[in-house]
Fold this protein.
Amino acid sequence: MIEELHHVQIAMPKSGYEDARNFYLNVLAFSEVEKPDELLGRGGIWLESQGVRLHLGVEDPFLPAKKAHPGFRVNSLEQTIERLDRAGVAFQTDVQLPNIKRVYIEDPFGNRIELLEVTAA
């Protein structure tokens, strides 16, 4: 039935476009893609990176997701942490899992995001 994950959507406030672009494009290195004309009136931003699709949808009133979160695999968690440090983005470590190193960050709106590196067994 289900073949693959097509995209993940998280919420942003209607006033958050500049902060969203700065964070997701400059810090996490996503690229913005055009939304279909049929959806332009709904607001939000569509992003992609290495085949990963992330949609930011406008919610009003807005509440950040503090527990539910996307988990994005990175090539090197060490390099990712260096990039986060340069951008002034705080991160939290958590219990490391077998073959997975991970940290959590928050986007500019308080949404939780997991960044993880899969390591050799």
Remarks:
- The two ends are 30 Å apart (CA to CA).
- The first strand starts at residue 8 and ends at 12.
- The domain at 8-118 is CATH 3.10.180.10 (2,3-Dihydroxybiphenyl 1,2-Dioxygenase; domain 1).
